[in-house]
């Protein structure tokens, strides 16, 4: 019986799963190289460097420009409106906490989620097992009671190792992170498909 749903933000709720390259770098490339953005992101998402260090060299009036790229994926807002009335929803994302909060605020997401988990605050990240074990312990749920939705196979593989039911959001033309020999339990192209999947699982 499904008791809760854990959902990734970028590429699942939003249309863009590569906000660092297609968002932050796109609007800060006059000040940072793509390599710098990605290197700083890897450190900032687990708290190894601060928000100020992440944006070092970028004028303060340019640091929010990436939000122009943050938009709902088609169908995701409608799905959240329906799903949150039936199941506890939790956001589970690898991100820099301040940037993550800005995205959530723009999309007005907090009202849909019982709790929000972000790697910076947990001091660990997907796909490390500690991430999944931490959120399961916090919510007092068992893996088999939870659906985990992500657009990245490596993150879903980590979730599967902790016995969560995995659902991959398919993004055509996605990058090398999904070129691995792993298949999620289910694949979707729209969050609205989750309700049918849950009904199917709950009747088994």
From TrEMBL:
Family matches, as Pfam families: HAD_2 (PF13419)
Region forming the signal peptide: none
InterPro entries for this protein: HAD-like_sf (IPR036412), HAD-SF_hydro_IA (IPR006439), HAD_2 (IPR041492), HAD_sf (IPR023214)
One term of GO molecular function: hydrolase activity
Keywords: Hydrolase
Family: Belongs to the HAD-like hydrolase superfamily.
Name this protein carries in UniProt: HAD-IA family hydrolase
